[in-house]
Amino acid sequence: MSEMSEPSLSDDIIPSPELAAGTQNVKKMQSSSAKTRVTHPSGRAGHGHGIQVLRIIAFASYFTFCIIVIAITQFIGVPLYFINRDWYYAYMAMTKRSFSLALTLMTQIFGPTTIRISGDESVAGQILPGDGGVLELRFPERMVMIANHQIYTDWIYLWWIGYANKPGMHGHIYIILKESLKYIPLIGTGMMFYGFIFMSRKMATDRPRLSHRLNKLKKKKIDPRGNTYFDPMWLLLFPEGTNLSTNGRKKSSQWAVKNDIKDPEHVMLPRSTGTYFCLTELKDSVEYVYDCTVAYEGIARGKYGEEIFGLASTYFEGRPPKSVNFYWRRFKIADIPLHDQKAFDLWLRDQWYKKDALMEEYLNQGRFPPSAGAKIKYVETEVRTRYPWEILQIFSVVGLCGLLWHNFRKLWQLVALKSGFSA
């Protein structure tokens, strides 16, 4: 689940110095390597090579075990699809919450980081400090979330945002992904059970597939009293299409020159086609679009997060980002120009220019602007679960089935034993 992209329906380190040969060469290389380690924004590696190996083993064991248990849980629930579809989707939402808990505890243990959040006046009163220092958000149960894409793990922190929301939305988040990701063993199958949307970036294939999935997400339900409602849904889109990198930055600049438009410095130009399609399909069932601008502490101007905060740095070396910073804005879908795609393209690009200005302020000040109209200007917390025992939820279904099977076997052996005595 490393790289996720918005559906594009239209097509949609420091360099090593040159050193002399011999002993002097070795000394300079050692010196250069030491400087590289020191200048990492999170400081020196928190663990030596031996501890890193142990952390890799522990990380892999924990993550693999959780994935296997969640996969078994999902397959146990498959028969519900043929019995009652609402039960089935509620069950799979439960397994999605389990995966979110596994990611949260994984980050809490192996890659702890501070989350700092603020927003403009449109989200006033919705970003609050919760009990025990845990973040409490009051975002709606249905929304489309758009964000700039800095590094591959953006989605982990944004999924945790769903966990921090009240009510919790980590079981109702939907992400649009590259089609190739569904072939990852266990994880890919799990994402299909989650209802994630896989795109091939081929117009003929993607349009009907995306329309089918979005129709499911906007299907009206009827409660026992006869009232209509929609299921909870957070749809996460990355309009840039991929995470910020040297190659992505180059393509964005080329596109800007080709179309004679301004190229932002800190983000890439967004692709509007897929986002436009999603919003036009969902506009009658969703009231708001929530925009998140993401910045990681320590990424210098002109550098890219993927070069600094990779999997090894974040989870194995003990050098995760010191802070992940979010700035939120909210837009009413009724105020977004969805009547015309060209008008929407201009609107989305303008929001990305504003996002670029926010990133510039972050680089200059070390923080995004404080929350407008709030007593607490920044809510700071950590990626963590509310209670240490929450992770046990992951094993509840498999544990219950194991207990039932154990008791059934005991009962069967007892019956067989009594039958033998009778004979």
Automatic annotation (TrEMBL):
One GO location term (cellular component): endoplasmic reticulum
Gene Ontology molecular function, alphabetical: acyltransferase activity
Transmembrane stretches, start-end: 56-82, 183-200
CDD domains: LPLAT_LCLAT1-like
Location of the Phospholipid/glycerol acyltransferase domain: 143-276
GO biological process annotation, one example: phosphatidylinositol acyl-chain remodeling
Keyword Glycosyltransferase (UniProt): no
Record flagged with keyword Acyltransferase: yes
Key words of the record: Acyltransferase, Membrane, Transferase, Transmembrane, Transmembrane helix
One Pfam family it belongs to: Acyltransferase
SUPFAM superfamilies per record: Glycerol-3-phosphate (1)-acyltransferase
Taxonomy, superkingdom: Eukaryota
Stated family: Belongs to the 1-acyl-sn-glycerol-3-phosphate acyltransferase family.
Name recorded for this polypeptide: Phospholipid/glycerol acyltransferase
Organism for this UniProt entry: Moelleriella libera RCEF 2490
